[in-house]
Structure to design on (247 residues):
């Protein structure tokens, strides 16, 4: 389970520290755990924060949100509520974030690491600033970008590709999750009873594996089909023009 300071929590949810404090003051967000003077938030807080933002965007007032959250928690222990929220909010990544310095990034991308490209990478969530350093939430994506640049693809186009790829994957993952929501989790206005919470926490945990496996398998099948289609003509041309065999 991830831990967040308040600025990290706000950034992960796409909001501001001020808003986080407002939601706490309005008793919409549970208080953080205290370690000395530090306030520590969990994945459950991140899920709750995203839920609050979603409901505000739908036009609900603070009082309505508080009433609905209270109704949800009524008759359930804090462990029931946070347990389900933590399953929903836990990181699905099987890789640990990697800290990188500006020097590391210059080694990877050379002169293409311009201020605008660096800002774009942060806007896309590929890099997160941590003081004087950065954190790559997905080192695999960072390494893939480095490899593409080393092959000759401009970093700007790599970032464009990363944005499009994330959008496409969000769409496909959303299709999978929506099917499960529709046929397993029930209508949007329904909430599980206290006895049903463990079952639905298990469903969400299994959904994690399902989505990752399906996306990985589909990507492998697509690569096997698309790469020959896209590069086949070029490979044939290279084979036909081997040194010493030219007509």
């Amino acid at each position: 389970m991830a831990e967040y300071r308040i600025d990290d929590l706000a950034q992960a949810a796409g909001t501001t520290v001020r808003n986080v404090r407002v939601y706490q003051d309005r008793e919409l967000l549970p208080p953080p755990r205290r370690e000395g003077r530090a306030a520590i938030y969990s994945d459950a807080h991140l899920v709750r924060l995203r839920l609050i933002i979603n409901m505000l965007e739908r036009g609900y007032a603070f009082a309505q949100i508080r009433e609905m959250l209270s109704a949800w928690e009524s008759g359930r222990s804090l462990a029931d509520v946070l347990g389900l929220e933590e399953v929903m909010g836990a990181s699905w990544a099987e890789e640990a974030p990697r800290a990188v310095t500006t020097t590391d990034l210059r080694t990877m991308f050379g002169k293409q690491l311009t201020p605008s490209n660096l800002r774009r990478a942060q806007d896309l969530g590929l890099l997160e600033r941590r003081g004087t350093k950065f954190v790559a939430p997905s080192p695999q994506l960072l390494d893939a970008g480095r490899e593409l640049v080393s092959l000759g693809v401009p970093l700007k186009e790599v970032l464009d590709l990363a944005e499009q790829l994330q959008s496409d994957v969000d769409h496909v993952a959303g299709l999978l999750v929506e099917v499960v929501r529709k046929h397993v989790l029930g209508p949007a206005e329904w909430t599980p009873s206290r006895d049903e919470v463990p079952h639905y926490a298990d469903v969400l945990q299994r959904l994690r594996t399902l989505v990752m496996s399906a996306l990985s398998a589909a990507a492998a099948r697509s690569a096997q089909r698309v790469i020959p289609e896209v590069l086949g003509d070029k490979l044939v041309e290279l084979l036909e023009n081997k040194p010493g065999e030219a007509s």
